[in-house]
Amino acid sequence: MITAKEDFSTLTPEEYFIWEEKQLEKHELINGQAYAMGGGSVNHGRIAIRITTLFSNHLENSPCETGNSDLRINIVGTNNYTYPDASVTCDDRDKITTQYITYPCLIVEVLSPSTEAYDRGGKFRLYRNNPVLQDYLLVSSTSIEMDLYHKNESGDWIIINYQAGDTIELKSINLSFPIEQAYRGLDLTLDTST
Known about the structure:
Elements: E1 2-5, H1 13-21, E2 27-30, E3 33-37, H2 42-58, E4 65-67, E5 73-74, E6 81-82, E7 86-89, E8 104-110, H3 116-120, H4 122-127, E9 135-139, E10 145-151, E11 157-163, E12 167-170, E13 175-178
Parallel strand pairs: 8-9
Antiparallel strand pairs: 1-3, 2-3, 4-7, 5-6, 7-8, 9-10, 10-11, 12-13
Keywords: Endonuclease, Hydrolase, Nuclease
GO molecular function, one term: endonuclease activity
Protein name: Uma2 family endonuclease
């Protein structure tokens, strides 16, 4: 989640990589400006861990790689870099970079009340520039609910809303799972303020 813009001149990607290595927190780079990433709630973190573990276990014997919130994504054709909560790349071009990936087929953002509008709007507009991206999964941290933005064979984005009792279908990585798997054991009434 983006919390605050750092107050300095425009950064090039090279300056950003060097500068961020010295910071205590992560920053996204959007149009040359660095934005500090705030921490999420306990449930936010636990949901993200469950999802990345689920993906990693499913893809164990495949050429695909799962990334967590420490893996930067370069927005195709730009000098913008973000940190989604989870991602999967199956693209060989991402095997030659060491500081980021560019061609994920799946991106996950766990929503917080303070960043939900950005994740649904501006951030999705950035991500959809990626010709390889097939699934963008938005996961609520306050209720058992997920919205999947899926690019169909015609190249159109459709939105599928999943709720309690539903099975999530991620065609990008050929994975189906009960929505409750991401929420097991969590009290979603706790800490809804972030």
